Amino acid sequence: MSKQAYCQYDEDRALAKAAREEFALQYIRETRRSDPGISGRKLWHMYRIEFGCDFPIGRGRFCRIIDGHGLKVRLRIGKPRTTDSTHGLP
């Protein structure tokens, strides 16, 4: 770490960032309890509407929080049916 980086580091700022991330994580977990299939982008929009400028987090960081804690929703990919075995033809 350079001398300049050491002097510019602000512990209060880092703690505030960690607190915002923890707050967002709690919000994500609470919302997912009621609706487990909600997407990350929709969660972020709901977060922005509900909290606005009180606890600001960008969309990219919000998605990284979701990814980092394993809270991503898996997409169900259906297998295409190519054969109809129940037809009446021999």
Structural summary, described in words:
- The protein is mostly helical and 90 residues long.
- Helices cover 58% and strands 0% of the residues.
- The radius of gyration is 22 Å and the shape is elongated.
- The N and C termini lie far apart (76 Å).
- The mean pLDDT is 87.
What tags apply to this protein structure?
90 residues, 4 helices, elongated
Kindly state the percentage of residues in helix: 55-70%
Q: Radius of gyration, Cα only, in angstroms?
A: 22 Å
**How much beta, percentage-wise?**
under 5%
Elements, N to C (H/E)? HHHH
Class computed from helices, strands and strand pairing: mainly alpha
Distance from first to last alpha carbon: 76 Å
Main sheet overview: none
What's the quick description here?
With 90 residues, the protein is mainly α. 58% of the residues lie in helices and 0% in strands.
Secondary structure topology:
Layout: H1 3-8, H2 11-34, H3 40-51, H4 59-68
